[in-house]
Amino acid sequence: MAVALGHDDRAARLAAGGALLRVNNIEVIYDHVILVLKGVSLEVREGGIVALLGANGAGKTTTLKAISNLLRAERGDVTKGTIEYQGRRVEHLSPNELVKSGVIQVMEGRHCFGHLTVDENLLTGAFTRGTMGGQAEIRRDLDLVYGYFPRLQQRRKSLAGYVSGGEQQMVAIGRALMARPKMILLDEPSMGLAPQIVEEIFDIVQRLNRDEGVSFLLAEQNTNIALRYADYGYILENGRIVLDGDAATLRANEDVKEFYLGIAGSGRKSYRDVKHYKRRKRWLA
Q: Is there a single domain that holds both residue 218 and residue 155?
């Protein structure tokens, strides 16, 4: 297991690493009519954790699906811009080809196979590997997943449909790990979970990033916890990136604190102040 990196060491490592993923000015349209993303650009450096923040309906999930090439299943298309992974364009790849290249999406809502056991769910993650490495390596990776998620080892023979929501989220992340990813696109990992479980999952994400070198792009409404674990963040509103910066800078931004962290610089706000929301946002000026 790797030694934990200090803040300065981590910053130096990220600065030295190149861009693993680049999204360049993409536009996404559904049903040839509905414009959802408008000129979205972002970057994930190798070994980084990047948070994609915004309210429900801002376009976070659409952005992840554009990257993982799952839009066509929902009659969506990237009509402008480019998506590059490891320096090459990937819009033409099928989702399974992208998985084989190391990009895995953990879907919002977990989507476990309820009729399969926890153990069987995890093994499905190794399907795209075929016979690569053989059963011994698959078993080693399964033991690695159980090392990060000891709760799952206790429930390995239970049907996934009958374990808790937090355990299902762990199954979904563990299943992604079985594909040996270089990057995980993690969609709303905190959704519907108790705060203690959310902390546990984000702590495991941080350990996976630090010890296994997995890069993460997190789509998350819980801005507070996302910015505590991420290196960099982008704020998405109405299909556009309206603000970005390193996590510490975003946490200190007065507008972010007020509108996303619930911390008002001049004291507690009343509901009447909501009508001034758009007018007072400096990034919308």
A: no
Q: Which residue has the tokens 């999952």?
A: 201
Instruction: Taking the CA atoms of 217, 219, 223 and 229 in sequence, report the sign of the dihedral they define.
Output: negative
Are 196 and 56 in a shared domain?
yes
Same domain, yes or no, for 164 and 197?
no
Span 165-209, pLDDT tens digits = 999 999 999 999 999 999 999 999 999 899 999 999 999 999 999
- Cβ-proximal residues to 77 (8 Å cutoff; 6+ apart), any chain: 28, 29, 32, 71
The CATH number of the domain where 54 resides is what?
3.40.50.300
| Dist. CA 87–CA 60, nearest whole Å | 23
Residue 269 resides in a domain = yes
DSSP state of 244: E
The region that residue 32 occupies, defined by phi over 0 for left and psi between -120 and 50 for alpha, beta otherwise, is left
Domain match, 244 and 164 both:
no
From the list 205, 249, 253, 195, the residue with the least C-alpha distance to 229 is: 205
Specify the range with the lowest mean pLDDT, choosing from 21-35, 131-145, 193-207, 237-251.
Answer: 131-145
Three-class SS state of 34: strand
Contacts of 21 (CB under 8 A, 6+ apart): 42, 43, 44, 67, 83, 84, 85, 103, 183, 215, 217
> Residue 10 above 80 pLDDT?
no
| Residue 152 belongs to a domain | yes
Range of the domain at 94: 1-102+183-252
Per-residue pLDDT of 15-59, as tens digits, reads: 656 899 999 999 999 999 999 999 999 999 999 999 999 988 999
Q: How far, in Å, CA of 245 to CA of 198, rounded?
A: 24
